[in-house]
Amino acid sequence: MNGIAVAIALTAAQFALAGKAMPQTAAVVDPLEPEVRRAYEAISASVVRLRTDARVELTVPDPSSGLRSVVKRPLSVHGSGIVIGTTEVNGRTEYLVLTNHHVADPTNYVVQEGHFLKENRNNTRAVPRDPEQTFIAVSEDGEDSPEDIPLIEIARDVRGDMTLLRTVGADRELPVFGGHIGFDPAEVEAGMQVITTGYPNGGRRMIDSGEIVELNRRHELGPVHYDFILSLPVEHGQSGSPVFIARREGGDGVTFLLIGLLHAREKGTSYMVPSTLWQHALEEAPGVSAFPGLLAEAGLH
After folding, report:
1. Distance from first CA to last CA of the chain, Å, rounded?
2. Residues 191 and 43 in one domain
3. Between the chain's N and C termini, which has fewer beta carbons within 10 Å?
4. The pTM is what?
């Protein structure tokens, strides 16, 4: 963190269920119920539109001389993320944003083929090869705006396709998701209803609901890992969208459990990378040790 003192404010309650069973009084509820949709509006407000800008170097031959030259091609990628906490940087409040690694570091996921770029499905590199800059994009088309908020990366996990970023010079208050992050695999099963929010194609915020179709399908995008299959559409710009299970715990109303991030769509199949693959990176993020017992209580060690 370049010597800057940072304290990360992720509440112990956010991790309280990670690695533990759901309370016996908790029941998964249909996200389409009117009460659930009303409660979800506050959660949805913490989901932000992201844009990463970069310039990728391409080596191309000069048709007249036959010599090869290096040209720089602009690359801009839209995605979604969720604000999950705050940091204190030299007495100033900044915000933590969780998203996919391929949203924050897209240059690692492309490779040159002739004069063009194609998807690099075999990326294992964490640090980007080329300079990149990610922003919270405030315009409804996701394009460049003077109101955009720049972000820097503080933790990455390639296998879990996850990056944790923080704002730099945030000049406005952002809604923060204060619910639970993580789940006990024994309490999640196919057929459960889920809900998500994202920004398809960098446009307006959209809410979608569906269900878990399959658990732990092998996926060879990046390092081999095991994803959940969901009955949700995943368009460009929705990568990094948080996925939730809605629960009702006795008379406490509706709560939402963040179980993963939308990850990819291939041949009509939508993939979610579960939190079990990347929650350890939150544990290892700079500054988390400033909160003794935070993760030990959550059962993540």
Report:
1. 24
2. yes
3. C
4. 0.81
